[in-house]
Design brief:
Blueprint lengths: L1 H13 L20 H17 L3 E6 L2 E6 L2 H10 L8 H7 L8 H11 L5 H22 L8 E2 L1 H17 L12 H17 L7 H4 L3 H29 L15 H8 L8 H32 L1 H15 L15 H13 L5 E5 L4 E2 L5 E2 L4 E5 H4 L3 H4 L10 H4 L21 H18 E4 L4 E3 L2 E3 L5 E3 L3 E3 L4 E6 L9
Parallel strand pairs: 2-7
Antiparallel strand pairs: 1-2, 3-13, 4-7, 5-6, 8-13, 9-10, 11-12
Bound molecules: protoporphyrin IX containing FE (HEM).
The site of protoporphyrin IX containing FE has 23 residues, from helix 12 and helix 18.
């Protein structure tokens, strides 16, 4: 152990970091103060890595991480080091051995079962659900149109929760129409508690954590989530057994992730109820807030850049005319500019700004630095996607056209969905869900930001204040204002 630690210290000495670390605390003091401090520290680490050629150091107590901000390095790292760092055990307290944070020996067979459920055929069949839920979203937003500033966040997080629950479990939890939906609330609570624990090494030990009120709050919320999913799994199993499962079967034979997982893992002799619970929880954890954050930031950007919004609207008119028909799977590939807008937003505001891994055997990077077993790696998605080396001098500018003009400078330069064998399985699902919701929203409403002040012909924009709990979010909860695009006779303006 001492030998291992000595090698880590040798590595630390080879990597530059001008951010002060204190004995026992390391850099953990920088995270005190909640989401805003998490994000400031996250940005600072990204800038420090870029300044130092792509690498810097991070200590959380005596846990060491190499921070990586260059795609050349992390392509290599994400290809060869598949294990998650121990810090992810706090997320495993909720989702057990579910695919996303499981040890490699469990992750490998689970990914094999989960990956085929995201086939193009299944994804295309889900668009009908995204479309129905987007219509509910547009209806719900009617009460905000023309009424001044409001937070978009609760609308989009309820949209993604309804969509994920319906595609994963076959139930409409109706979060969009229910105030304080208990599943959604419990879910949010658990996520925040997990994120807080990760950056506070003084509450890592279970013996300490159990004495704190957070533990009870976590367990309470966890049981709300697990009981809810468990009930659905049991009734689905019974229905399959009795072969009278017509209730959740959609007219066009859409199969839910739960049904696909039962089938794909071997039916009766396949996954246990616990395994099914873990895998469906993964979909909720990985798929709800991520897409809601991505879609909300995209709406914020459309509000801030009216010319981009009008270009998106023009594209929508080309595809839909002024009809009110719902979005279909065939429409989505035609929305190329909207696609570029979403990608450009995810480049500047990746919902998951960092991912964490663990080095298991010596790994020499092109710079000659060798990462050593036992060290954690913090792959800095935020920093990488703003690295001028790969995005040019206008890396900080919002310019969707860059995704239509030229191929990426490096295949991993855009990595909002991570990269390599453990990348996001829901990449296409998320793009389709977000594009369906955004297309529906922009067809119906013109969106603007409340505090834009006109300075001659220029609109002055207040910078977005970012916070980071489990996801990266707008600290002002995506405040925008809407104006209906329809005239009184129902026709579009
Ligand atoms: C904008 C939306 C999304 C973003 C930005 C995103 C991003 C990511 C990232 C960065 C990872 C890697 C996490 C890590 O290694 O710690 C990941 C993994 C994953 N995501 Fe997504 N995700 C999104 C939406 C979704 C959706 C909608 C689903 C499913 C419905 C999903 C399912 C998964 C799964 C299953 C994994 C684990 C893959 C594995 O470990 O093999 N994601 N996602």
């Amino acid at each position: 152990r001492w030998f291992k630690y000595r090698r880590i210290l040798q590595l630390v000495n080879r990597i530059k970091c001008d951010i002060k670390a204190y004995p026992l605390l390391g850099h953990a003091y920088l995270f005190i103060g909640g989401g805003d401090s998490h994000m400031l520290t996250c940005k600072r680490l990204g800038q420090e890595a870029i300044k130092n050629g792509g690498l810097t150091n991070l200590w959380l107590g005596d846990n060491y991480f190499t921070v990586v901000g260059d795609p050349v390095d992390f392509e290599l790292i994400l290809r060869s080091s598949l294990e998650k760092d121990d810090i992810m055990r706090f997320a495993r307290n909720l989702i057990g051995n579910g695919t996303i944070f499981a040890p490699v020996s469990i992750w490998r067979p689970r990914r094999k079962v989960l990956a085929p459920t995201f086939s193009p055929k299944n994804l295309n069949s889900f668009v009908r659900i995204f479309s129905q839920q987007s219509t509910v979203l547009a209806e719900q937003l009617q009460k905000e149109a023309g009424r001044g500033p409001f937070s978009l966040w609760k609308y989009l997080t309820s949209y993604t929760m309804d969509s994920v629950c319906e595609t994963a479990l076959g139930v409409d939890v109706n979060a969009q129409k229910t105030e304080d939906e208990p599943f959604l609330k419990a879910f949010e609570k658990c996520s925040i508690l997990i994120a807080e624990r990760m950056v506070q090494p003084w509450i890592y030990a279970d013996a300490v954590y159990k004495l704190l009120p957070y533990h009870e709050a976590f367990e309470k919320s966890k049981s709300v989530i697990c009981n809810f999913i468990d009930k659905i799994i049991k009734s689905k199993r019974t229905a399959i057994k009795e072969n009278k499962d017509n209730t959740n079967k959609k007219s066009d034979d859409t199969k839910t992730f739960l049904e696909l997982l039962i089938e794909g893992s071997g039916g009766e002799r396949g996954y246990s109820d616990l395994e099914l619970q873990e895998e469906t929880l993964v979909l909720a954890v990985a798929g709800t807030d991520t897409s809601a954050v991505g879609a909300s930031f995209t709406v914020s950007m459309l509000a801030r850049y009216p010319a981009v919004q009008e270009k998106v609207y023009k594209e929508l008119l080309e595809v839909f005319g002024d009809s009110e028909r719902p979005v279909t799977a065939e429409d989505l590939p035609q929305l190329k500019y909207l696609d570029a807008v979403v990608r450009e937003t995810l480049r500047l505001y990746p919902p998951v700004p960092v991912v964490v891994g663990k080095i298991e055997k010596d790994l020499e990077l092109p710079s000659g630095i060798t990462l050593v077993p036992g060290c954690g790696v913090l792959v800095h998605i935020w920093g990488t996607q703003r690295n001028p080396r790969y995005w040019g001098d206008d890396a900080e500018q919002f310019r969707p056209e860059r995704f239509l003009e030229a191929p990426l400078q490096h295949p991993a330069a855009f990595m909002a969905f991570s990269h390599g064998p453990r990348n996001c399985l829901g990449y296409q699902y998320a793009m389709m869900s977000m594009k369906t919701a955004l297309a529906t929203l922009i067809r119906n409403y013109r969106v603007s930001i409340p505090d834009a002040t006109k300075n001659g012909s220029r609109t002055e924009l207040k910078p977005i204040r970012i916070t980071f709990d489990v996801m990266m979010k707008d600290a002002d909860r995506f405040t925008v204002q809407l104006e209906s695009r329809r005239k009184k006779d129902g026709k579009f303006r």
